[in-house]
Design brief:
mainly alpha
Length: 274
């Protein structure tokens, strides 16, 4: 039979866990960082430049390289491509999102029983994992909507190396080539991880490039599809980073509007307060 002390500990844990979960409502609040406006303007400039350059590259690839590139790739389903098929799964949205969500769940459950500095670090890590999760979710959601509208056929869907097979609003796997979800996921994850931990920028860039290359080798996408996916992923992760920074979650905004990872301690949410 549980003792009163045990019951008190359980009730305290539930209260702290509930307070931690409610603290995520801060994401829905208004921006509180003084330089949020400067950061928003900087984000708009950067996004506009990326979109303009990306659009040019995509059009050039569509007309000049897409059909040629897929004609050079090995046959789809070739037995020797099994290492590439294993590699490409590490960029699958379901795999990446489930991995981040599982880690976030563990941190969320452990943080209420931690003490002192460890709890503060876990709370900060929880905010960072929330950013990683949303940085991948948001651009993927937008990408799925664009896939449905564009309805671009995957390589050889018409039996030939033709980059201009379309069936708008088809909503089928065969016509879901543009943009690449794997490219969105790997680029968004690479940007988000690098934004939080800059020292990981090089390995995360290599990871994203390998995932993108695997989609081309497996004839899952045209080159312009993966460029568009990377563009979606980076801009989406940038936008989510701004959202967190404007609310002082995981990031800080400098006087020039630059967004930097925040390494300050995170105070424990007050019981009963969102």
């Amino acid at each position: 039979m549980p003792t009163p002390a045990t019951g008190d500990k359980a009730a305290g844990y539930v209260a702290r866990l509930s307070s931690l979960l409610l603290s995520t409502a801060q994401l829905l609040g208004s921006p509180s960082a003084p330089q949020a406006g400067d950061a928003a303007r900087k984000l708009r400039r950067q996004a506009s430049i990326l979109i303009a350059l990306g659009a040019v590259v995509i059009v050039v690839l569509m007309f000049g390289l897409d059909a040629r590139e897929i004609a050079l790739m090995p046959p789809r389903g070739a037995a020797g491509l099994w290492p590439v098929r294993v590699l490409t799964d590490f960029g699958k949205p379901a795999f990446v999102l489930s991995s981040i969500a599982a880690l976030l769940m563990v941190v969320t459950l452990v943080a209420p029983i931690a003490r002192g500095g460890l709890r503060s670090r876990l709370l900060h890590l929880a905010a960072e994992l929330q950013y990683l999760l949303l940085a991948v979710v948001v651009p993927n959601a937008a990408g799925e909507f664009i896939k449905w509208i564009v309805g671009r056929g995957r390589p050889f869907v018409g039996g030939h190396a033709n980059a201009f097979y379309f069936s708008h609003f088809a909503g089928t796997e065969a016509y879901a080539s543009f943009p690449s979800a794997h490219a969105i996921t790997s680029a968004a994850l690479a940007f988000a991880v690098s934004a939080l931990w800059p020292r990981l920028r090089i390995p995360m860039t290599i990871y994203a490039l390998l995932i993108v290359a695997s989609r081309l080798v497996l004839l899952a996408h045209h080159p312009s599809d993966v460029v568009a996916g990377a563009l979606f992923g980076i801009i989406g992760a940038m936008a989510v980073r701004y959202w967190f920074a404007a609310r002082r979650l995981g990031f800080a905004i400098g006087h020039d509007g630059a967004i930097l990872p925040s390494r300050g301690p995170v105070s424990e949410p007050q019981r009963g307060c969102p």
